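Q: For a teaching session next week I want to show students how multiple molecules come together into a single three-dimensional assembly. I've collected the sequence lines for a complex. Could you give me the predicted structure tokens for the whole thing so I can convert them for display?
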Amino acid sequence: MGLDEDWQPQASLATLRLRASLLAQVREFFGKRHFLEVETPILAHAGAADAQLAQFALNDPVHGPLFLQTSPEYAMKRLLLAGSGSIFQITKAFRQGEVGGWHNPEFTLVEWYGLEYDHNRLIKEVCALILELVPHLTMDTQITSFREAFKDAIGVDPIADSTDALRKTAHTLIPSARALTLDDRDELLDLLMSQTVAPHFPCHHLTVVTDYPESQAALARVNTRGLADRFEVYCGALELANGFYEAATYAEYVRRFEGENKKRQERSLPFIPADERLLAALKESSLPDCAGVAMGFDRVLMLAIRASHIRETLAFAIDRA
Amino acid sequence: MTTYSTNEFKNGLKIMLDADPCSIIENEFVKPGKGQAFNRVKIRNLKTGRVVERTFKSGDTVPGADVVDAEMQYLYNDGEFWYFMSPETFEQLGADKTAVGDAAKWMKEQAICLVTLWNGVPLSVEPPNHVILKVTETDPGVRGDTSGGGGKPATLETGAVVRVPLFINIGDSLKVNTQTGEYIARAKE
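A: Of course. Below is the structure for the complete assembly, covering every listed component.
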């Protein structure tokens, strides 16, 4: 296709109509459940702590450095701390360098926090929403622990096995990764999960993975078994949502933000100052008991239309934006 | 030396891998939402032509390969090297047997070929898609048989052997597809 045709939308008009109707369905879903729809800044002073996320930064002569948000998590938590009750948001999020069949650097997230929810209740809700939006999926959602998922797919124990053993498995199962050193255990787990475990999940129903290793807790609580109350929802290898039974205390957030910055330092990535406003709010009181989840809306739409590339769900993907 | 980050990977990018110049033919971005991103990349080794798959950690860098494609005119072969000339600078370069490979059997003096250069040295040579070559050896032609059915081998002036219709004679000029090695038509001289 020549440059002349680059002005054309990439999603078909039928897909754009479906997109609009699914967005309406999302609002109806939360309306019924009495969630408050909120909007938080896309452009904000604080960047994401996650060492794995590269963010678009810009320098404003008036307000100094600003970041395009990789998710609305911190701002939504400030609303929860201010007494908002259960909230949801449909927003654009931005992640630098993420381009591919399942990634566009600018994408749409549906993120919500249920007050007095734990992850188990939230898992049911996420799956109910996805099944409503994608009616051709069968209802037999499978819930499996991180550990069971690895054991079933590749016969290793991601929690108990030594890093050496995991590395050996990775090098055997993924010959193209033989040149990688893979010293970092979490990197190894990420590689195995994305290239060997998730591809085993069936495509006709949802698979929910729970009980993540503590090192992959992000901002989820760590339970009495020493595992993170974090979950991810997959359909086939396509990851659709990531949720937490949210960590609540100031000390916990400080510790996790520092951990991420330590990882950044080890990888020679720039230091990202913690979100001071979130920390200030947490200092006054802990986060109310809640669970939260972010769902990739474009990917759910991909499933609904059985798209093989995310650009089929977007009016204009990054190459035509 | 230029280096490329995985963020800059795209089809056709020339990089160095295991000390050989390579070209990226497919690049897939793989990333768990909260985890380390990887690039799963299909790469053609430009020396051997073999395609391999490699997984990189996103953000890793690899050295670029100074590889360029140049249209050059084939001049002559001295038994060891095939000599080409740039029609713009008139600069001449010799390509060895490894670089010329199968292209040798299609190349007639004056032909414009696509020469891939690595650090200025010919890495591979692609002959024109279609060439016109004279038949130097074949069984006598069968007059009147223009059916094209059956056929027979014919040796061309460059040494290539192609299957031709029965009516073709020694001295005929033939248009041949170098990609498939197939006879297309008799060419008028």
